[in-house]
């Protein structure tokens, strides 16, 4: 039997639309990570970038379970001495609602050059409006 490896030229990237309203952040990020890496395709190969584009809407309404809204701390370091800023998830949700999902997905991707390419295909928007209607993203439903 011969083994076939998919080539970069033959990869078809679909556009997926994910509604994040009332979805737990971790489970949502795991499903998004699988789509970005291409693990939902039958010819998945770990060292080939074959994932899809993912558009996430309603990031402002994503659910944090337990007491994470007040107890989970997001760190932001400016690079300067005493430049570490610690913010609870409630403040991050008000200022930058897309960061809750973006950081969760980034943490689940492998730490390599391929993951840096894959995270660029993630588009996160705080409300239901997005500028990717021309690509006609296919809605993804799970866990409802």
Please give a handful of descriptors for the protein shown.
4-stranded parallel β-sheet, 144 residues, alpha/beta, two-stranded antiparallel ribbon, 29% helix, Ribosomal Protein L13p, Chain: A, single chain
Write the layout of secondary structure elements.
Layout: E1 15-19, H1 25-37, E2 53-57, H2 68-71, E3 73-77, E4 84-88, H3 89-95, H4 98-108, H5 113-119, E5 122-124, E6 138-140
Parallel strand pairs: 1-2, 1-6, 2-5
Antiparallel strand pairs: 3-4
Helix pairs in contact: 1-4
Give a verbal description of the structure.
The chain contains five helices and six strands; from the N terminus they run βαβαββαααββ. It is α/β, with parallel strands linked by helices and 144 residues long. Strands 5-2-1-6 form a four-stranded parallel sheet, covered by helices on one side. Strands 3-4 form a two-stranded antiparallel sheet. β1, α1 (25-37) and β2 form a beta-alpha-beta unit. α1 (25-37) crosses α4 (98-108). The termini are far apart.
Brief account:
The protein has a domain at 13-64 and 97-140: Ribosomal protein L13 (Ribosomal Protein L13p, Chain: A, Alpha-Beta Complex). Helix content is 29%, strand content 18%.
CATH class of the domain at 13-64 and 97-140: Alpha Beta
Q: Averaging pLDDT over every residue, what do you get?
A: 94
- Output the CATH homologous superfamily of the domain at 13-64 and 97-140: Ribosomal protein L13
The beta-strand count equals 6
CATH topology of the domain at 13-64 and 97-140: Ribosomal Protein L13p, Chain: A
Describe the largest sheet.
4 strands, parallel
SSE order: EHEHEEHHHEE
Low-confidence stretches: none
User: Roughly how many Å apart are the termini?
Assistant: 42 Å
Within the largest sheet, what's the order of strands? 5-2-1-6
Share of residues in strands: 15-25%
CATH architect. name of the domain at 13-64 and 97-140: Alpha-Beta Complex
How large is the radius of gyration? 17 Å
Helical content stands at 25-40%
Count of helical segments? 5
Shape: globular
Structural class: alpha/beta
